[in-house]
Write a structure and sequence with these properties.
The complex is a heterodimer of chains A (257) and B (78).
Chain A (H helix, E strand, L loop, with lengths): L1 E8 L6 H6 L2 E9 L5 H10 L3 E4 L12 E14 L2 E8 L5 H12 L3 E11 L2 E2 L5 E2 L1 H14 L10 E2 L9 E4 L1 H8 L4 E2 L3 E5 L7 E5 L5 E7 L3 H6 L4 E8 L17
Parallel strand pairs in A: 1-6, 10-13
Antiparallel strand pairs in A: 2-5, 2-6, 3-4, 4-5, 6-7, 10-12, 11-15, 13-14, 14-15
Chain B lengths: L13 E3 L18 H6 L1 E7 L5 H12 L4 E3 L6
Classes of the chains: A alpha+beta (257), B alpha+beta (78).
């Protein structure tokens, strides 16, 4: 199977969780084991635009318990004899192989996943920003080593912040940064701005004014509430990615909320 | 059930609570990190070839770049 596989380098691996939860999109060829009417196939495909049950297959690295996954959309493209081409947008952790099997069961003829290509993983797409093959990685890295022009790195590597593009953001003051790097939860006075649509329990990404990622966190309040608060914890940290000491320690006269 | 909005179609607006400036002495804008940091906090949007597993592809990237640690954002079957 081919397609988009975001690779996190060194410390960026700390935020890989943001990618695992983010949505994915695939283009799939499903091979039916019997003949079925096109209209019937289209109808069944649409039925799967829903929260579906899945148990991970034998060959998987996760616990094999029944779980649900959301299919955002299924777009039928075309079919040729028993091959059905469609596009599917889904939650991370959805097994397309199992989806094809289940579609086959509902159709009554049986089916399997013939071919799969991932066209999106979170914010990373096929036509997207600096998509590269392994050959290009090797080539550009070699160019950089030889010619030492730092711009060359940008041809195939992008800042880890791009991996967080789909998470709601909170931007904080310089003075709040180092405390966060030490694992302190985010409190209201440190907040400068935030995206709309944050709710209690949302996974968010905390940034500096320069756009650097500080940490992944879980919001305790909604956007509307955070805007009004002048004290109290706003989010609990999940994973810190910025090293301590990047920004200076700032002593506050009062640390009580 | 009809199509639901995937995460990449959610539109968000930035709500400003307070304004402040940032000190240029500390930190770097992500695209302007010095090379070692640029790699250390970098990701690659890789188009995986057919054949190797996602883990193998990540391992090869790690070898090419000669770095200590690597990860990937969701296994794609071989």
């Amino acid at each position: 199977m081919t397609g988009i596989l975001p690779i996190t380098l060194e410390d960026s691996t700390k935020i890989v969780q943001a990618l695992l939860y983010s949505g994915k999109e695939y283009v799939c060829v499903m091979k039916l084991h019997g003949d079925a009417e096109e209209e019937q196939i289209k109808k069944v495909l649409l039925e799967f635009e829903d929260e579906i049950y899945q148990r991970p297959p034998l060959r998987s690295s996760v616990k094999r318990q029944l779980r649900t996954r959301r299919i955002y959309y299924v777009d039928y493209f075309e079919m040729n004899q028993r091959n059905v081409l469609f596009k599917v947008g889904c939650e991370g952790g959805t097994y397309i192989r199992k989806l094809c099997y289940d579609i086959g069961e509902i159709l009554g003829v049986g089916a399997h996943m013939q071919e799969l290509r991932r066209t999106r993983a979170g914010p990373f797409t096929e036509n997207g920003n600096r998509k590269v093959t392994l050959h290009e990685v090797a080539y550009w890295f070699g160019e950089w080593k030889e010619k030492k022009e730092d711009q060359t790195l940008k041809k195939f590597i992008q800042p880890m912040e791009n991996a967080l593009a789909l998470l709601p953001r909170i931007i904080v003051r310089d003075s709040a940064v180092d405390a966060l790097c030490h694992g302190a939860n985010l409190t209201a006075p440190g907040v400068l701005s935030m995206d709309s649509g944050i709710t209690n329990d949302s996974i968010i990404a905390i940034f500096t004014l320069k756009g650097e990622a500080i940490a992944l966190a879980k919001a305790l309040q909604s956007t509307e509430e955070i805007v009004k608060l002048d004290h109290g914890t706003v989010a609990t940290l999940q994973r810190v990615v910025m090293p301590r000491g990047t920004y200076p320690k700032v002593w506050r006269s009062s640390r009580k909320e | 059930m009809p199509r639901t909005t995937p995460p990449w179609e959610i539109k968000r607006e930035l709500q400003i609570k307070n304004e402040d400036t940032t000190n240029p002495k500390y930190g770097h804008e992500p695209e302007h990190r010095p090379p070692q940091d640029y790699i250390r906090y970098g990701v690659i949007n890789l188009d995986k070839p057919a054949g190797p597993t996602s883990h193998e592809v990540a391992a090869w990237t790690k070898k090419i770049l000669k770095i200590a640690c690597i990860g990937h954002g969701g296994t794609l079957e071989a």
